[in-house]
Structures are given as structure tokens and as C-alpha cells.
Amino acid sequence: MSKTLKDQPVPGPAGNQHDRLPIKMMNDRILVSIEALEGERRSTGGILIPATAQMGRRLTWAEVIAVGPNVRAMEVQDQVLFNPEDRYEVDVRGNEYIILRERDVHAVASERLTEGSTGLYL
Fold this sequence. Notes:
Elements: E1 29-33, E2 41-42, E3 48-49, E4 60-67, E5 79-82, E6 88-92, E7 95-101, E8 105-109
């Protein structure tokens, strides 16, 4: 059973939660939303790190917005860990999303996994 963006309220360009996106993901593809990859960020100690600072290979967390019918290990609203260098970006109604394959996801974090789970599967 595939989940589409029609079933999930996704803000449009004006931030209206009632705008629904008519998108159906295919096969093992997932659509994720991340807050920001680029830009300034702060360390846990409060140090400001400029956007131009080089970072090693670092994985990124994102929220699942839609999943294709063949995706087995994640659901809409799960948090997934992936490599931001291996991605396809798409612009839908002024919002940027990333399309990934299920095999490109390294870990899934979800409250539904806490029962009987030993933790993240890496």
C-alpha cells in the first residue's frame, strides 16, 4: 500500500497546511524533507560554524513525507539517516524535497520502533 502526499498535509508556498500535493512515489522511492543542509550552524558548545567550513562525509537526518508501494522499512513521518551527497532534489510548489531509494537510507528512527526494539539498526 503506497502512501501519497494527498493524505498528508504539506505546507505550500504560503505555509497553508490545507494545500495537498498530488504526488505518488513509485517503487522503492521515498520523498524526504530536510530543514537546511547549507548555512551556518552551531556546535554543541555554542561555537558558530560558517557555511564555508569544510566537513567530512557526514550523514543527515530527514523526515519522510511520502513512500512508494515497495518501501518496507519506513513510514510517513519517520526520521531517516542518509548521505546528503547521494540525492536527487525536487522542487514542489516552492518547497525543496529530496528523493531517495530505500537502499540509500542508513537508519530509521521512529517512536513506533521503540517497543521491542534494540535501537537503531545501522
